[in-house]
Amino acid sequence: MKTIPSKETILLVEDDSLVRQSIAFFLENIGYHVLQGNDGREGLELFTRESPDAIILDLQMPGMSGLELLAAIKSDLPATPTIVVSGTGSMDDIIATLKLGAWDYLTKPIEDLAVLEHAVTQALEKSRLIKENKRYQLHLEEEVSKRTAELQRREQELKMTLISIVDVVASMVEKRDPYTAGHEQRVTSLALAIARELDLDEERYEGLGLSAAIHDLGKVAIPSEILAKPGKLTSIEYQLIQTHAQIGYDILTEGTAAFPWPIKTIVHQHHERINGSGYPLGLSGHDLLIESRILSVADVVEAMASHRPYRPALGIEVALQEISKHQGTLYDADVVTACLSLFANKKFTFEYS
Ligand SMILES: [Fe+2]
Q: Which domains does the chain have, with CATH numbers?
């Protein structure tokens, strides 16, 4: 007989005191700590209070039977090895106990106690493996969720850094071109309101807001006297100003490959038109990002509604007539509908400081 290195506790539930004491004596002799219960109810109390490593139980007992005890602790049974020792030996009992979650079934009287020892050893070994596996799984899950949280934290930090860079760029662009002061903010607020109307997802909404804030970034390369020129622009000057969409894209391509949003593409496309008549590439329809289609409408409406160095403000009515007139040709039809509805039904207004 071998001895058990660390004492494991076995709950023995048996109403026949002679049988119970002889089994308990045998188990204690081979190194287990044994708790004894006289019937199902006592067994249940001991199980709840002591959390034994294994249970050996009889089926036929006065009061609460072995089957009732099994049913009462059913939810804990997948992790607690339970061996039924019964004198009935009927197939129905065997099936009923196994269905309730018992791990093994032995028939009384147990002629050879080595059989019981073998059943107990096997059950405890299997239980140890299950517990170890569970601990490992738990550890793995904790590790994964710890690392995921760390990644999300770093991603958020990176986003905040990028957002503050965009803020710096936006105020730099505005400082250089004070005649359009507030244009970027007003375009951003209208573009984001349209995006909400169209139910744009959060990630794209965020990227649209940042792109709108710096959409005219390329104007840093245009001479101030052209940007601020009062009166009509010559054809050459107009062409020069048009280069700002490409220049903005080039600056963003060289400097900020890490942006998690397609900011440079949106900036590149903000003067494209859905019939292909825009610039710089003459892209059309769904080759244009939805963010670009929104931004181009917000940009046109704000630009027409507001004062420009070369002309006084045309007013919001004229701006809305312009997008209605070209709805579906120059401007995305859904975007125009959303924009018109904002002004007509949602009392959207531009804020001028
Ligand atoms: Fe522009």
A: 9-137 (3.40.50.2300), 177-345 (1.10.3210.10)
